[in-house]
Amino acid sequence: MTTSALAAPATGVNTDVRRRPGQAQGGENRSGWLFATPFLVLYVAFLIGPVLIGLVISLFNTTTVTSGLGSWVGLSNYAAVLSNGDFWASMWHSVLFTLLTTPLLVLLPLLFAVFASRVVHNRWFFRLAFFAPYVVPSSAVCLIFAFMYTPQTGLVTNAFGWVGLTAPNFLGTTSGAWFAVVLLTLWWTFGFNFILYTAAIQDISEEVYEAASIDGAGPWQQIRSITIPLLRPTMSLVLILQVLASLKVFDQIYILLAGGPNYSTRPVIEYIYDTGFTSYRGGYAAAATMVYFVILVAVSAGWLLVRRSRTATAANA
Q: Would you give per-residue pLDDT tens digits along the chain (317 residues)?
């Protein structure tokens, strides 16, 4: 038998198993769309759909006590929202809450995540202890803190007396109310950012720390020169997530304070809720929602542009 005979393919066997690039890419695209279809259906049904419905309602004099859209008013609802002092006051309350909570919830979780990563034994306990409050429902958290803020008998109010200070009226004054809700939020949501930082720290190779240790770098030098610089992308992510979460505050202020005292802590989402479901002005509330939605999108887009600019600058450097 000759070599050519051995090399000859068997009759009827197709040896050309190669696929054209376009054919392979088309199959991958179809598979991707099939896998993404359930999410896209939910995304359209529960995000895009409500946004479009809210946009339509905002153009009518809709009320929440009668059926139908009501009479057409065009952009009158938007003009009323933009000229309403109560709307901008509630917007300022949301911004103030963001300014009070964001630095604490970006820096403190970072600090404790770095310290927890340095713990040698029972590291799991610290991670569990910091994250556990995050899974507690907001209603339960607010009930716990309401008892703690109770005058004369509350744990927090008594703690001021233990150090010789007079406890503020947490639920009856504006300054006390802001202190109360910021402390509650810090304890409740601390764990989410802590876990993000912890996951990012785990991605840092131990070889980097070993090399730094061989070069004589101590723990503080390693944290300052290795950990913190490598965590900057995560810090940027935590910052924008925290800003957006704080701007959307509702639960803890509504349950604990009901926007009081005298609406001095009412955030914009509670204002929209009160307008739509207490004053029954559905069209106006929808317009206020659209304005607030545009503000949130603008904040997100601004952060994205800044990050892209920094990335391009770093790449060209």
A: 444 444 444 444 454 545 555 555 666 788 888 889 999 999 999 989 999 999 999 999 999 888 888 899 999 999 999 999 999 999 999 999 999 999 999 999 999 999 988 887 888 888 899 999 999 999 999 999 999 998 888 888 888 888 888 888 888 899 999 999 999 999 999 999 999 999 999 998 888 888 888 888 888 888 888 899 999 999 999 999 999 999 999 999 999 999 888 999 999 999 999 999 988 999 999 999 999 999 999 999 999 898 888 888 877 76
Share of the chain residues as helix, strand and coil, in percent rounded to the nearest 5:
75, 0, 25
Domain range annotation of the chain: 89-280
CATH 3.30.300.30 is held by the domain 89-280 = no
Helix (H) or strand (E) segment spanning residue 245: helix 232-247
Distance CA 103, CA 112 (A): 14
- Please report the sign of the dihedral spanned by the C-alpha atoms of residue 41, residue 43, residue 48, residue 53: positive
3 state DSSP class of 60:
strand
The long-range contacts involving 66-73, CB below 8 angstroms and separated by at least 24 positions, are 70/283, 73/283
Cβ atoms within 10 Å, residue 78: 18
Cβ neighbours of 80 (radius 10 Å): 16
